[in-house]
């Protein structure tokens, strides 16, 4: 089995990779629903109290996206190393 094929097989069998990838994909799909120009205009029209809450949520979303991408990358490295050992 080639290292690439071993990596694909390891990903299929890894609950860690499957879940991390699902979370990262879900966060990225949410980005498709953002209309930046419209959303910035809406943010500007919100009351200060609600605007601050909305901005805090968006900032958390960005951090979650980064954290999910980091987790996927870390798991990928582990699987690549394990696949090389087996190949």
What is the 3D form? elongated
Major sheet characteristics: none
Distance between the termini: 6 Å
Order of helices and strands: HHHH
Question: Structural class of the helices, strands and pairings?
Answer: mainly alpha
**Which oligomerization state do the chains in this entry correspond to?**
single chain
Please state the CA-atom Rg, rounded to the nearest Å: 19 Å
Strand content: under 5%
Helix count from the secondary structure assignment: 4
Q: What is the mean pLDDT?
A: 89
In terms of per-residue confidence, which ranges show pLDDT below 50 for 5 or more consecutive residues?
Answer: none
| Count of beta strands | 0
Share in helix: over 70%
Give a description of the structure.
This protein is 87% helix and 0% strand. The chain is an all-alpha fold and 87 residues long. Helix 1 crosses helix 4. The termini are close together. It has 4 helices and no strands.
């Amino acid at each position: 089995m080639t290292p690439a094929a071993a990596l694909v097989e390891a990903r299929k069998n890894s609950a860690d990779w499957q879940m991390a990838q699902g979370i990262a994909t879900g966060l990225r799909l949410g980005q498709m629903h953002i209309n930046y120009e419209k959303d910035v205009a809406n943010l500007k029209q919100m009351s200060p109290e609600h605007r601050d809450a909305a901005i805090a949520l968006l900032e958390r979303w960005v951090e979650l996206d980064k954290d999910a991408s980091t987790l996927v990358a870390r798991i990928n490295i582990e699987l690549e190393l394990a696949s090389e050992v087996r190949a």
